[in-house]
């Protein structure tokens, strides 16, 4: 007999379930989203809006607002990311100078701003003005001598320690996720992983404040990587204001991809490079629509930053250069050598940094993050102060290394011996023999290079915001400038050699050392991150050196080849693996001849698969199964005997559906039969009301046969972004393969520890 009351009750329940109940479609923390499901939900939503738009003018206006909401989000992201980047740049400028002295007319002025406003500043002594006083002048009225030097040294160390302590304390107390560069986690999130709070409002606020503090402290780190994290926090905040993005994790990730582009756009003043960086380096799913929106977000962000003009040079970029000579074919050889150096440095850095971070994770060192930051800051400040090239901020150092030596340059690097009979235009200064200043600068640069290489290994990965772009570029720029000066002096003293004879006449300006610094910077950044196309575009946008694309390309490709010879992973992928995130890299190749049956669970000797039947389990049975297991979902079969697959039900949605039915539906008790079919099963007359849950059932789960090659399965997971895939034979359910199983199998095949993949 079919219970008539149950029939009418189930009809009401079906109506109730047609209304989406709260939290359906959301995911647990540290779980992967189902891309296919998110895509189909968005298609349904779009179809509903389109059909409603024909009903009335108001619905039509609502459909237009929905269509334009994407562009509105991009505009807001660009405005906020650009504003934050401008504020960070201005604050860093002031606080970096605060370590050395203070402006008497207005303490919030940096050294440069202070001397701009002074009427007593001359061009020759543009770094000295009465309004700017070093700490020794202010405290003991001395500017020269041993006591003044020691006092300035101590103040430098104290300010650095104060900034670093404040930063690490804020991160620990208010936003633990604000540490690191953020790019490995952003990559993982964009691939479909959920890390709740990683892009939250507290993380945004604390990361912005602490980024200023750590960069000002003089530690060997940059603000570029963390700015991508900051921009993605902005993207997450604005997408939560629009239901189109807040209720669909797949759509939200399209916004985050565009936000990452805006982040690089303001970090380097490179909007096109930002879009390419998002496409090449961080994004997992990047449709054409996202490309346009990324372009728009990067444009708005760059425009906002340009309006704030934090560098005071009316340009978007800090390292703008103008070289007066072209490059020559013979110079490709040293450029390629710099590429080799970049690849070797990248490999060395990744291996040493990962070994140190693993040690931090597995030993007592990880329990004292504040102490570690204080110790590294103290060592950095003590060693950095005596050397003028490590004392100043890394951005200023790179800027000086990139510069060409004009007639008005006062840098030590430009201390050449001038020919008194020289009568040439100011721009076209010929190659000259190096003076004492250049040789002093060379050994100071060599010491700075060794220090930078060592200290960056220990700094990246501490519990503070830390970017890697600027330190890597500094290492390459120092090596490049030294090579450039070497080639320049070789060409000057041996211009009759066959390699110089054709293009370097005596009295000509042949070699530009600044160009070598630029190429070296690109090579080292490429060696560490394994970027190629976006790297070259960022470099020429960063410097304005458009005609030097070929040297940059040669160095970037060489550094990638050399680094790839030692290991395919860039620094971000290495950190993803270190943290055990379930990231299926598009660049990884799977060439082993295994089958789906080798990877699926349950394996031989394991308990059979936990399944639901279509119409014979009670609410209590299902609740017990959910309580005893921690699986993300359960296959639904006709019966345990036939094991014919019907669909797949997500764990979270089952819990919510049962909870809602118990609260809102009369007659639903523990003994109520749950069914996933259209019609209720035949039940005895006195049975409690059955519960229909067809709406939470995915009737088209992705399936493969047991003899599908794993190469194909890996490709399916990668390209469709699956969470799990069911294994069948002739419609009968055999097992299940999850993303975690695929990653563990790949790790096993690569002779790595499969248990390092920790999350689902």
UniProtKB/TrEMBL annotation:
Domain CBS residues, every copy: 600-666, 697-755
Family matches, as Pfam families: CBS, Voltage_CLC
Domain of life: Eukaryota
Sequence intervals crossing the membrane: 68-92, 153-175, 195-215, 227-243, 255-279, 332-356, 368-385, 441-461, 468-487, 515-540
UniProt entry keywords in alphabetical sequence: Antiport, ATP-binding, CBS domain, Chloride, Endosome, Ion transport, Membrane, Nucleotide-binding, Repeat, Transmembrane, Transmembrane helix, Transport
InterPro entries referenced in this protein's UniProt entry, alphabetically: CBS_dom, CBS_dom_sf, Cl-channel_core, Cl_channel-4, ClC
This protein's GO CC annotations: early endosome; endoplasmic reticulum membrane; endosome membrane; Golgi apparatus; lysosomal membrane; plasma membrane; recycling endosome; synaptic vesicle
Predominant location category: membrane
GO molecular function: antiporter activity; ATP binding; voltage-gated chloride channel activity
Gene3D superfamilies: 3.90.1280.20, Clc chloride channel
PROSITE patterns per the UniProt record, alphabetical: CBS
Keyword Transmembrane annotated: yes
Subcellular location: Endosome membrane; Membrane
Cross-referenced SUPFAM superfamilies: CBS-domain pair, Clc chloride channel
Membrane topology: Multi-pass membrane protein
Family assignment from sequence similarity: Belongs to the chloride channel (TC 2.A.49) family.
Protein name: Chloride channel protein
Species per Swiss-Prot/TrEMBL record: Physeter macrocephalus (Sperm whale)
């Amino acid at each position: 007999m079919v219970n008539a009351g149950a029939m009418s009750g189930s009809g009401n329940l079906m109506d109730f379930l047609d209304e989406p109940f709260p939290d359906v479609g959301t995911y647990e923390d540290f779980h992967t989203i189902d891309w296919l499901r998110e895509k189909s939900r968005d298609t349904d939503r779009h179809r509903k809006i389109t059909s409603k738009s024909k009903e009335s003018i108001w619905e039509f206006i609502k459909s237009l607002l929905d269509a334009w909401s994407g562009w509105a989000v991009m505009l807001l992201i660009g405005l906020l990311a650009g504003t934050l980047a401008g504020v960070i740049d201005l604050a860093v400028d002031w606080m970096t100078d605060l370590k050395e002295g203070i402006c008497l007319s207005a303490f919030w002025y940096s050294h440069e701003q202070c001397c701009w406003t002074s009427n007593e500043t001359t061009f020759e002594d543009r770094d000295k003005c009465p309004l700017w006083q070093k700490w020794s002048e202010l405290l003991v009225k001395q500017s020269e001598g041993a006591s003044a030097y020691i006092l300035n040294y101590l103040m430098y160390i104290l300010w650095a320690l104060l900034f670093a302590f404040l930063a690490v304390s804020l991160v620990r107390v208010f936003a633990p996720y604000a540490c690191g560069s953020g790019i490995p986690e952003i990559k993982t999130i964009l691939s479909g992983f959920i890390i709740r709070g990683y892009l939250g409002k507290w993380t945004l606020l604390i990361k912005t404040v602490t980024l200023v503090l750590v960069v000002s402290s003089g530690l060997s780190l940059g603000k570029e990587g963390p700015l991508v994290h900051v921009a993605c926090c902005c993207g997450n905040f604005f997408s939560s204001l629009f239901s189109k993005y807040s209720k669909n994790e797949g759509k939200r990730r399209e916004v985050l991809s565009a936000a990452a582009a805006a982040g690089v756009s303001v970090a380097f003043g490179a909007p096109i490079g930002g879009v390419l960086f998002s496409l090449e380096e961080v994004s997992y799913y990047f449709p054409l629509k996202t490309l346009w929106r990324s372009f728009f977000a990067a444009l708005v962000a760059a425009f906002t930053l340009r309006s704030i003009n934090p560098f005071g040079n009316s340009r978007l970029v800090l390292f703008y250069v103008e070289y007066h000579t072209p490059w020559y074919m013979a110079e490709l050889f040293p450029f390629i050598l710099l590429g080799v150096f970049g690849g070797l440095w990248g490999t060395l850095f990744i291996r040493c940094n990962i070994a140190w971070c693993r040690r931090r994770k597995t030993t007592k060192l990880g329990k004292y993050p504040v102490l570690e930051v204080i110790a590294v800051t103290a060592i950095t400040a003590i060693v950095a102060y005596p050397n003028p090239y490590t004392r100043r901020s890394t951005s200023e150092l790179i800027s000086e290394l990139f510069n060409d030596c004009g007639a008005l340059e006062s840098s030590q690097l430009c201390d050449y011996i001038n020919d008194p009979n020289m009568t040439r235009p100011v721009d076209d200064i010929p190659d000259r023999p190096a003076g004492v200043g250049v040789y002093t600068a060379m050994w100071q640069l060599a010491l700075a290079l060794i220090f930078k290489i060592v200290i960056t290994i220990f700094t990246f990965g501490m519990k503070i915001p830390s970017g890697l772009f600027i330190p890597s570029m500094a290492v390459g720029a120092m090596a490049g400038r030294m090579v450039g000066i070497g080639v320049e002096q070789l060409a000057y003293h041996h211009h009759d050699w066959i390699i110089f004879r054709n293009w370097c006449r005596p009295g000509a300006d042949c070699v530009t050392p600044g160009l070598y610094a630029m190429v070296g910077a690109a090579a080292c950044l490429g060696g560490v991150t394994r970027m190629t196309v976006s790297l070259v575009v960022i470099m020429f946008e960063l410097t304005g050196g458009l005609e030097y694309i070929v040297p940059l390309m040669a160095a970037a490709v060489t550094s990638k080849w050399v680094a790839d010879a030692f290991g395919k992973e860039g620094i971000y992928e290495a950190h993803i693996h270190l943290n055990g995130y379930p990231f299926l890299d598009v660049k990884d190749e799977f060439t082993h001849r295994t089958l789906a049956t080798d990877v699926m669970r349950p394996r031989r000797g394991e308990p059979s698969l936990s399944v639901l039947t279509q119409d014979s389990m009670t609410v209590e049975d299902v609740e017990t199964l959910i309580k005893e297991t921690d699986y993300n979902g359960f296959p639904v079969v006709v019966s345990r005997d036939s094991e014919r697959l019907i669909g797949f039900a997500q764990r979270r949605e089952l819990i919510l559906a049962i909870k809602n039915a118990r609260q809102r539906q009369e007659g639903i008790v523990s003994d109520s039969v749950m069914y996933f079919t259209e019609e209720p099963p035949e039940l005895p007359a006195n049975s409690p009301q059955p519960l229909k849950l067809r709406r939470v059932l995915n009737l088209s789960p992705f399936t493969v046969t047991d003899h599908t090659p794993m190469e194909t399965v890996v490709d399916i997971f990668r390209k469709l972004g699956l969470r799990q895939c069911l294994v069948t034979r002739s419609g009968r359910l055999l097992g299940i393969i999850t993303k975690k199983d695929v990653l563990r199998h790949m790790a096993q095949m690569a002779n790595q520890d499969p248990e390092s993949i920790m999350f689902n």
